[in-house]
Amino acid sequence: MNTQNFEKWTKVYDLIYGEYKDDVDFYRKEARKAKGKVLEIACGTGRIYLELLKGGIDIYGIDISKNMLEVLKKKARNLGLKPKVKKADMRNFKFNIKFSLIIIPFRSFLHNLTIEDQTKTLKNIKNHLEPNGRLILNFFTPNPEFIVNNYGKEQKETIKDGDKEYTLITKSYFIDEPNHIVEFVNMLKYKNKVVWKDKFRIVLIHKREFELLLRIVGFKKWKVYGGFNYEPLKSFKQEMVWIIEK
Hints:
The chain is an alpha/beta fold. The chain folds into two domains: 3-140 and 205-245, Vaccinia Virus protein VP39 (Rossmann fold, 3-Layer(aba) Sandwich); 144-202, S-adenosyl-L-methionine-dependent methyltransferases. It has eight helices and eleven strands. It has a seven-stranded mixed sheet with strand order 3-2-1-4-5-11-10. A four-stranded antiparallel sheet has the order 6-7-8-9. Strand 2 (59-63), helix 5 and strand 3 (84-87) form a beta-alpha-beta unit. The longest helix has 14 residues, at 66-79. The chain is globular. The model has no long low-confidence stretch (mean pLDDT 96).
């Protein structure tokens, strides 16, 4: 993980992703089922965290970016809320309490690029769960059609912020094909001027591969859905949504 990249993202994160709402109701609903404390890993600037906190959920949060957390805290102050968040790494965070539910929204688990990091994260989560606790996370299903048609090519998206109109340009490509590691190069333009540029890496994880990781770590029971409405997973065009019991 490159923490510097995540710090740089603070400048534009809410501009690019702040209005994304597809997963909020799902995580709110699942958090309300929790009979104890909730932890959000990679809570960022609070897109989901603050919605759960507003809903009365006893939620804690960690993020690897100090700057992201500062933005979250400022938003919380403006809302009259008191967040319980701290800077920490998902691979080795430590709390003296156990959680009824731990969530990793918005594909953040994919930043664990190696099997060692993946198992460290899952073991650490398992150790922080109550006996009947749950882990819920989501990430995309590797889509061979999308990879063939889009990797190595620039993708453009228009982002509006009030009267301003930005262009987000993204280019993704494999930097390690055997290990399925992908690098994304991102550029934000305003009036044809580059106002921000950065890159980050993720690893592609298939369903059976993740099931093996869960078994290695010692999880016994899980369900994977094809989206946030609990649809059956039938296609690589669907988002994988995992509900895992300790």
